[in-house]
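Write out the 3D structure for:
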Amino acid sequence: MKAIRITGYETEPNLDDVSQPVPASGQVLVRVRAASLNPLDVKLQRGYMEQFFPLTFPYTLGTDLAGVIEQLGADVEGWALGDQVVARTEPTAGGAFAEYALVPKELLAKAPSTLPLKEAAGIPTAAGTAWQALFESAELTEGQKVLIHAGAGGVGSFAIQFANCVGARGIATASGSGLDIVRLLGADMGIDYRCEDFVQKVSDIDVVLDTMGGETQQRSFEVLRSGGHLLSTVMPPDETLVAAHNVTAGFIFHASDGQRLARVSKAIDQYGLQVLVDRTVPFTEFIQAFQHQASGHARGKIIITFD
């Protein structure tokens, strides 16, 4: 089969011919129809995450996939050949950017029936991170106000839609065409971060979802109400600022979880949510797609197909 692998940190991904894997007990073999890129893939390739996710080389890139169950290992119940699934593999295992991938049964979830399977590949990390932050950490509820930085990104685009699902008011920062995107996704307000100061535009925010870090994160404390929440996907919040503003804050370290992913998939079907797709490209054009992900300019998810 074909797989996109690296032979070491900072080496260029290559399209290699490798043996098709065989599922062990508790695993399934998924025929991958599509997989999606995440900022994490770039960080892993560059070695930035070695302390948390040490890789063994050669390493097949990718964690997020959608496909069809091809083979069941022993002790796998509740799944059948031909089931359409989504999954996020453990980062140290990778394996999503290949024609076939091994997935532990506990990381599988049924793919949403309201989305094309290839688009569903964009769900696992981005939607799972937004869900973990808003509902598991901040416990976002109806009527609350949430400020979502980089609303036209992968995590932000799902966060806007999840806020709508519970009747919260979503406010998103973006720029250029991203402002149109966040409004189409249902944001109550879009703020152009290039020419508007969000600190001057909003106040008494219940929840801030920070996907930017740095100065953006530091200034976000100024718009939170007392007792509000700041959740960051990029860096631990400054505890001095947390105490000074009488808020709670945390770093969202997203973990692979099939049960969470199943809840996300169910919500997508229930509310007709969308995957914001930046582009869809065949695996033969992976290098260009990887470079675009590394640029930080993707609007939503980059999908890699294996048909």
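DSSP finds ten helices and 16 strands in the chain.
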